[in-house]
Write a structure and sequence with these properties.
The protein has helices at about 1-15, 20-25, 45-65, 120-130, 150-165, 175-190, 190-200, 215-230, 250-260, 270-285, 290-300, 305-320, 330-335, 350-360, 375-390, 395-400, 405-420, 425-435; strands at about 30-35, 35-40, 70-75, 140-145, 170-175, 205, 235-240, 260-265. By secondary structure, it is of the alpha/beta class.
């Protein structure tokens, strides 16, 4: 039965996006076959919903070859009990309650993390990891752009585990701190102490792992630390701004280990999620942001949540210092000249140039009638960006893409928007092109 589903997974791996396979299909396992129904265990209900929405047709097609035309698949959520890696805490006398280490910031907790479509999978993965450390979500690899919540989630995991067991050996560290500690211990001849510090942990949380790339001694030490913790069943959580295989100058053996566990990405928040974040932050800080101000800030700040929070704080500060109410007028005044409107600086030719350069195409390829995939995807992505960033009309966009009809622009925009929900490679391409456009 196990080998049967593994055969199906290998066939799936050939036909779907590799990032999605690693993130959503690889962690599943078969637990039974009855007549024409295969029962597959998934880590959470979110996995089941996502797989059914995106890949059920392909799965049924593959099963149909093996089990017949009536083949079905049923998902059940893994109800495995937590391992006794982080033991339940003994009764604690309240006046002697141990405080959390200062490495864990009070604002980073699961309760304060605003969940939306862009980060739902990452949140569910992190919470499951915190509740069952050292289990099948090991290592957990979180990746996404700057300011999207990686540090919030990775610290939330450590905080949750320590709240359950204050005596657990949990360490959060950024990769640059790891490098600095390693250099210091090498200089002082204290490598045994360095290794003991990291290899006797129950949970190791490492932020921004991409910064160890190119540092041979650092990668060597991290490789052996990773192996020792992993083989002892200890939890490892890593964050990065890139998918493992995309980190340049990172050793292949580390890429392989990072990709061997559960990978979850965080994408830019949509408008509704950004408004929810503004509302939550304002409530936590004891002030009220009117709905129209929240919508204005959410629509204006397109880069990341960290910048959104910074701009919100700037508006509140200006209102407080001038004695004026927090309203749309003061928000626009505050943002003027500080955060320029991106639409004024990027036009259609510039978007087309960036897309052709990124995909190594000729200048007129996006305007041609070619229908090969290596032209269609970049063309649709370029139209999507034009629709999102510029103020040009649909007919005008179509005209500059070889005289195409406005309906083609609408179709391209809708398709890319839908595909971004599940296609991590497309998301990576879009992020890279936005970076080229300085957005």
């Amino acid at each position: 039965m196990h080998s049967f589903w593994e055969d199906c997974k290998r066939e799936l791996e050939k036909r779907i996006d590799p990032h999605n396979f690693i993130s959503y299909i690889k962690p599943t396992s078969a637990i039974g076959i009855r007549e024409s129904e295969l029962t597959v265990m998934v880590p959470s209900a979110f996995f089941a919903d996502w797989i059914e929405k995106n890949y059920m047709a392909i799965i049924r097609e593959i099963l149909g070859v093996k089990l017949g035309p009536d083949a079905r698949v049923k998902f059940v959520v893994d109800a495995q009990k937590p391992k006794v890696e982080v033991r339940a805490p003994a009764p604690v006398v309240r006046h002697k309650k141990k405080t959390l280490p200062t490495q864990f910031k009070p604002q980073y907790a699961f309760e304060s993390f605003v969940v939306g479509k862009s980060n739902e999978f990452a949140y569910a993965s992190a919470l499951a990891c915190a509740k069952n450390p050292g289990s099948k979500y090991n290592p957990l690899y979180l990746y996404g752009g700057v300011g999207l919540g990686k540090t919030h989630l990775i610290q939330s995991i450590g905080r949750y585990i320590l709240e359950q067991n204050p005596e657990a050996r949990v360490l959060y560290i950024s990769s640059d701190q790891w490098v600095n500690q390693l250099i210091s211990r090498i200089q002082k001849g204290q490598m045994d102490e360095f290794r003991n510090t990291f290899r006797n942990l129950v949970v190791l949380l490492v932020d921004d792992i991409q910064f160890i790339a190119g540092k041979e001694r650092t990668q060597e030490e991290f490789f052996h630390t990773f192996n020792e913790l992993f083989h002892d069943g200890k939890q490892i959580v890593i964050s990065s701004d890139q998918f493992p295989k995309d980190i340049k100058k990172l050793e292949e053996r580390l890429k392989s280990r990072f990709a061997s566990g559960l990978i979850a990405d965080l994408q830019p928040a949509d408008l509704e999620t950004k408004i929810a974040i503004i509302n939550q932050k304002s409530k936590m800080n004891g002030y009220v942001i009117p709905r129209d101000v929240a919508e204005f800030l959410a629509a204006t700040i397109k880069s990341n949540i960290r910048e959104l929070e910074g701009c919100m704080a700037r508006v509140v500060a200006v209102a407080s210092l001038t004695g004026r109410p927090i309203d749309l007028a003061i928000a626009k005044e505050t943002m003027e000249g500080v955060y320029s409107d991106e639409k004024k600086h990027v036009d259609i030719p510039r978007i087309q140039k960036a897309v052709t350069e990124y995909f190594s195409l000729k200048p007129n390829d996006l305007k041609s009638k070619g229908r090969s995939r290596n032209l269609v995807v970049p063309r649709q992505l370029a139209m999507y960006l034009c629709r999102e960033i510029t103020d040009d009309s649909l007919p005008q966009i179509g005209k500059l893409f070889g005289g195409r009809d406005h309906s083609t622009v609408i179709h391209s925009h809708q398709k890319v928007k839908k595909d971004l929900e599940s296609n991590t490679k497309l998301y990576k391409d879009l992020t890279a092109i936005k970076k080229m456009l300085e957005l």
